[in-house]
Amino acid sequence: MTVDENPISIIEGKEFIKDRDIGYCKYGNGPMKCLFICGGVGCYKKDYPESVLRAFKESEVTIICIDPPGYGTSRPPDRVQEVNRCKMDSEYCIELMKALNQTPFVCLGWSEGGRTAVHVAANGKALVTHLILLATSTRVDWRGDMAFKGMRNTRQWLQSSRDVYLEFYSDEYLQEQWSALCDVVAK
Questions:
Q1: Cα(first)–Cα(last) distance of the chain, in Å?
Q2: Which residue, 127, 105, 114, is CA-closest to 34?
Q3: Ramachandran quadrant class, 41 (left: phi over 0; alpha: psi -120 to 50; beta: rest)
Q4: Which residues pair with 25 in a beta bridge?
Q5: Is this prediction's pTM over 0.85?
């Protein structure tokens, strides 16, 4: 695929879904409609930066990148990490795509966003044409639990790993959210 020579803008917006404003961006105006879901403590600007979106030919795809409730531009309120978070997020994803008239669609999830994408595909069978999972695990065994426990304190991460998040979140928010996510994974 080649990038179009006169690129169109990436449009950012919010849509009121269920009980809150949900932030998203839209790229392209093509017939293949796609929903991109970010990973844990992510946001579309971190996980799907402009350079990634512009790798797609805008005349062939329309990409919607969602910030799930409590992440990125879908704040306030802040994220509540709970066991059924991905299933609940899937409802916002489906309703956003309906509200934006972007159905049927391909659903792509990165990392924890892949868990949400599985629920989107299951709950929106008539709307989802394809499911793409990137670096996704749907179950965490004792080894994964140990890995999460080892990553719980973000202040012990390499600074370069922290910086990716700190561009979009405060140090306090990152530590609070990541710790809570690790605690939920252990359940």
A1: 43
A2: 105
A3: left
A4: 12, 65
A5: yes
pLDDT band with cut points at 50, 70 and 90 for residue 140: confident
β-partners of residue 63 are 27, 34
- What pLDDT, on a 0 to 100 scale, did the predictor assign at position 6? 62
Q: What is the pLDDT of residues 79-102, one digit of tens each?
A: 999 999 999 999 999 999 999 999
CATH class of this structure's domain 11-138: alpha beta
Q: How many CB atoms lie within 10 A of CB 15?
A: 17
Per-residue pLDDT tens over the stretch 156-171: 999 999 999 999 999 9
- Which residues, at least 6 apart from 157, have a Cβ–Cβ distance to it below 8 Å? 151
Tokens encoding 143: 């080894």
Judged by phi (left if over 0) then psi (alpha if -120 to 50, else beta), residue 99 lies in alpha
Tracing tokens 């370069």 back to the chain, one arrives at 160
Rounded-to-integer distance, Cα 125 and Cα 91, Å: 13
Residue type, 113: G
For residue 151, what are its two tokens?
């990553």
Residue boundaries of the structural domains of the chain: 11-138, 141-187
Q: How far apart are CA 50 and CA 66, in angstroms?
A: 14
Fill in the amino acid letter for 166. Answer: L
Label residue 1 by pLDDT band (50, 70, 90).
very low
In what side-by-side order are the strands of the sheet with 20-27?
Answer: 11-17, 20-27, 61-66, 32-37, 105-110, 128-134
CA 82 to chain centre: 16
